[in-house]
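Regression report. Comparing outputs from two consecutive submissions.

Submission 1:
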Amino acid sequence: MPGAGTKAGTTTAELSAYLIDLTRLARRAGRCLTGIDRVERAWLRHAITELPRSWGLIRTAYGYLLLDRAGMAFLDASLSSGDWGNSDLLSRLARGLDAPQQRAEAALRRAAMTRCAAPMLRRMLSRSLPGDFDYINVGHSNLTERVMSSVRASTCGRIIVLLHDAIPLDFPQTQSPEAPERYRRNLSIAGRFADRLLYPSTYSKERCEGHLTQMGPVPPGRVVPLGMTSVMPCATEIPPGVLPKGPFFLAIGTVDPRKNHLFLLDLWERMGQGKFSELPPLLICGAPGWEADTILHRFATSPLWGKGVHVYSGLSDGAIAALLERASGLLFPSLAEGAGLPPIEALSRGCPVISAPLPSCREYLGDSVRYIPLEAISQWEKAVAELSVGSLGGAGATRNSPYIRKDWREHFKLALTYACQ
């Protein structure tokens, strides 16, 4: 019989005790969420609504916070509203925190059920959590010797880590100088301490395991495809002047070398010299990442800047969804992806996708996407022209039947069932 507050049909996995690392989300105060952030937030929301015996762990400037489900609900609500309240003296004295992060850490200290200095983590977990809890880290953050050894030495049952990709090691030229070594260290720690590894795609599993085999024994792992969070399109959230009147194209993703936005600028400049009587606008929607200044300088010095090419940061999820419903196509020339969420989101709204031939995209979307090698820029130009002409036939002229995307339920079912084996 289900206990009080437990839904009928609740599985053994859902009744287990879980400690979910939420450090990455706590650091995102005042920032747009990345793809990995969204995965961690999906786990946060699943814990709040479906896992009655779950807690959240956050590393701060002064140690660690432990959140119960009420505290996790506060974190989720504050991420949505951006309202963290006032900072406090501790946060203002901490090094390396900007103003939003100061307010977030102060608020989360107030919301925490307990907290401790860094050396006391094992004791806090042993005193506060039930025996045989599982520690889950899905954000590539807080993967440290201190955390893993403290968790292992407490009452922890299993350690489960989701590895999204091995891009910092496979494509170091697209990362900050310190990123490859930092990721190598995180990967090594995951390999040494994890009882189970999760991956969003077969491609990411193969790439990560290839590096892990060079570091020692590889923990057992399983592919657990990511879900998609349903977002209500909201055209009223599109800022004035952003939505073009005619056909237009979108590129969605952090502005950094890996997303390869400069390829699209080269493409648009090439098209501007060709047969296009009227160049369709290109809207690049993404927060600045590493090397963004260099990339944006190249955009700003292009003759198409502010005319055929535009870059927007900070658009809401509702605005992005509304733009996808109206766009002639999504362009995705990324160099590498562990999963690649923008094409899934685009296809779910009937928006055609032109993408580089990424293994993870093929794994998720099959032949629903038009794949064109990055070396074949003339084929990209032709594909954009075809979609532009189709869009002139009227609203929805080039729309695909919406791709039926998976929600998160199957992801959590696979992940938690595997964790409990």
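Submission 2:
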Amino acid sequence: MEEVKKDLEQTNLLQEKHIKESIRVQRTEYVRQQLKKRKEAEDALLVKLLEEQRVIDGLQEEIRENLEQTEESSKYNQELKESINAQIYALHGISKDKLEGMKEYRRAYYRGCACALFLLSASLVVLCGILHGFDSEICLAMLSCSGLEGALLVQEKRRIWIADVICRCLYLMVFPAMTVLFVCYELEYPEYELLLPYMVMADLVLLVFAAVSYFFYYPYRAEKRKARNAREHIEEIEKSARKEVRRNQKSLKRALRKQTRRLKKEERRKEKEQQKEHGCRSFLQSIKAGWLRKAVSELPEASAESEQESEQEAEKTS
């Protein structure tokens, strides 16, 4: 009885071990299949990405060549235009240096006027401070006007062109207004009390305008438009790359289908040839077997005839 129990326990242990091993094997096989599927998906994605990158590289090379040609042609056209213009100006007695001086004259004139007006405004502030004290009403008004001049003058290239023109015109009007206010104060004209609040409000408004025009200036406005065009171009390149990849995949699938059909046709042709060869062999074998059967059936008759002939010859001799 004890031996029987031991045998039963051993068989149960072996069955449980076999079940566990089979479950473990199934789990391992499932994990292996999942890893294989993931690897296949990653390989397919990698192939697709490499194909897209190849197409994009080709398009980028074409774009680079077109850009180089465009830059060279634009540079050549600009140089040709400048040389033609210089020759025309030279025919009229205007050299290149004179032409550059004419271009810079207006800007230099404005800068000289702006510097002179600012120095005059500063001297007027100092004069008011000496005459009436730096804490007087007229001196503070002159200081506010000088601050407005500085706000209008600073960073003239950091504003849009409309705001720059307005600021230049207002800057040229500040010193005459300061002079009128100073004369009215010194001569005790009643217009001084009327002009002072309007001057202060105008200073504040113009100061705010100068600050807003400076801080709302966006130097990359044209580049932003170019960047938008570049993004659209990049999207077009990506779309064309995806279309090219899909086209290549479709052509590859068509080639694979054609190859499979061709292989199937070859297999069917080989099968037909094998069937024909097998039929010919079976036909020849059947003919050979019939001939052998016929030959075997004719052997006894030939032996009997030979015996009869031998008996007849024996009788004749006797």
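Expected: both submissions complete independently.
Actual: both completed, but the second showed a warning that disappeared on reload.
Relevant detail on submission 2: The two ends are 100 Å apart (CA to CA).
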